[in-house]
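Backbone-to-sequence.
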């Protein structure tokens, strides 16, 4: 039944509705695929086969009773940053140990409410800090894609590398992910999948392990733009348990994918044309512009003059918030506890042994930029830059309806290639952090293969709460690109 895993989410939902197969068969096919592939890909950190099959049987029963929800029977993966009731949730950190949350995140609860079935929990960078999945306490995820004629193991990107790799390798029909500075979009670009970070506040953060609360946002990684729209519709919605969740209706995103883009004004931000940008990235971007022009869009060059300060501002704001959020891991309430003769020794041992190197680096940077004497020079300054970036977008969106940029400055790179150089790693986020700082929706879709045969992603950025235009533009680009490539199967 291997072919069931090759379906898109939409095709699987249609097949379930037509009774071509059952949710149980669908779940079983995916569980078998995971079992075969995971030793090589390391995308899942935990599978829940009994619960998945049991859940799938309940889904089949609901369908038989005529009570099918919008995602009835969909076999999904969950980034291990979402609290899942009674199921180990680690944030890929030693410090959470064997933590089994007594509650469910709102986003995952919404998916189960709509009939979806969980296959297991997906690998990620520790506390979602990273761009290559190499900071995970479970070891890196391996990208299902390889360069043509090369056997080198590549990163699937990060932090949602498990989500992206699992979707690309057909181990699940779609996955939850989170994006603080690019963690949905960059892995989507590296794996030929579609990922959207919605407007800040569109999805509830309740039950998502916090990294940087003013930037964190959940979203899906999926096989197609339509699949991403279907998943986001279920994930989103106002939640009184998150005070930053927006009290707005959730539109029918899938309907928006089909909308005409004729007459839409598309902005091309000149500041994103970095010096020394890879020619293939520039060519893909130009191709995207040409596709939208052909679809009847009006292309305009726009200025986002503070773009060059976005990355430094992000790498102050995000660690500052992280240092505060991660103060709660003291060995008293959650997971791992180190040994010591006094309270402070236990704290020190717990945090010293429980956190990995990148997380410690972020805590140190965050504590530094927030400390008396440096606060004004760093944190306050970064907040002012953030305001300017918001204003840049506001000005641009007076003239255009959406923006088109590349998602990442390169294709997937080799595992181990950039771990020793944090700055090189942070540069991955140059095109994505701006939308987190401004709270805007951003979507990545696969647009081309580079000379090595690796996927490259285009990013569509929209106005706050205007995911519908983002989906419409992405739908038009997807149609024009006709991207059908799949990684060649080298894993079991
Ligand atoms: N790569 C970025 C970082 O390391 C973004 C991570 C994310 O979006 N969670 O902070």
């Amino acid at each position: 039944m291997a072919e069931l895993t090759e379906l898109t989410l939409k095709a699987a939902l249609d097949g379930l509705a037509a009774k071509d197969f059952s949710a149980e068969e669908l779940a079983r096919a995916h569980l078998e695929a995971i079992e075969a592939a995971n030793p090589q890909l390391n995308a899942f950190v935990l599978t829940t086969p009994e619960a998945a099959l049991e859940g799938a049987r309940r889904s089949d029963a609901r369908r038989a009773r005529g009570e099918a929800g919008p995602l009835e029977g969909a076999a999904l993966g969950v980034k291990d940053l979402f609290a899942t009731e009674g199921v180990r949730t680690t944030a890929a950190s030693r410090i959470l140990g064997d933590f089994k949350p007594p509650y469910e995140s709102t986003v995952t609860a919404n998916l189960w409410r709509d009939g979806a079935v969980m296959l297991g929990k997906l690998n990620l960078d520790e506390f979602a800090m990273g761009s290559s999945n190499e900071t995970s306490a479970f070891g890196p995820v391996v990208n299902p894609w390889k360069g043509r004629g090369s056997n080198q193991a590549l990163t699937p990107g990060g932090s949602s590398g498990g989500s992206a790799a699992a979707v690309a390798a057909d181990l699940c029909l779609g996955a939850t992910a989170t994006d603080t500075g690019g963690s949905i979009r960059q892995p989507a670009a590296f794996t030929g999948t579609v990922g959207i970070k919605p407007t800040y506040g569109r999805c509830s953060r309740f039950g998502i392990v916090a990294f940087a609360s003013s930037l964190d946002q959940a979203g899906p990684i999926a096989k197609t733009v339509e699949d991403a729209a279907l998943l986001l519709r279920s994930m989103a919605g106002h939640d009184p348990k998150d005070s930053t969740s927006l009290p707005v209706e959730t539109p029918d995103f899938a309907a928006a994918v089909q909308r005409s883009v004729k007459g839409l004004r598309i902005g091309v931000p000149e500041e994103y044309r970095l010096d020394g940008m890879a020619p293939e990235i520039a060519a893909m971007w130009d191709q995207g512009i040409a596709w939208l022009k052909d679809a009847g869009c009006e292309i305009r060059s726009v200025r986002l003059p503070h773009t060059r300060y976005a990355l430094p501002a992000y790498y102050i704001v995000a660690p500052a918030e992280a240092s505060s959020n991660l103060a709660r891991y003291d060995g008293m309430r959650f997971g791992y506890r180190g040994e010591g003769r006094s309270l402070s020794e236990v704290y020190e041992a717990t945090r010293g042994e429980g956190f990995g190197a990148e997380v410690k680096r972020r805590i140190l940077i965050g504590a530094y930029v927030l400390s008396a004497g440096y606060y004004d020079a760093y944190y306050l300054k970064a907040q002012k830059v953030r305001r300017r970036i918001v204003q840049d977008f506001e000005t641009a969106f007076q003239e255009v309806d959406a923006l088109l940029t590349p998602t990442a400055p390169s294709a997937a790179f080799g595992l181990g290639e950039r771990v020793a150089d944090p700055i090189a790693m942070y540069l991955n986020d140059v095109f994505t952090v701006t939308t987190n700082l401004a709270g805007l929706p951003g979507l990545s879709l696969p647009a081309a293969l580079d000379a090595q045969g690796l996927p490259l992603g285009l990013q569509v950025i929209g106005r706050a709460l205007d995911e519908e235009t983002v989906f419409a533009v992405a739908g038009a680009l997807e149609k024009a690109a006709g991207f059908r490539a799949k990684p060649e199967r080298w894993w079991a």
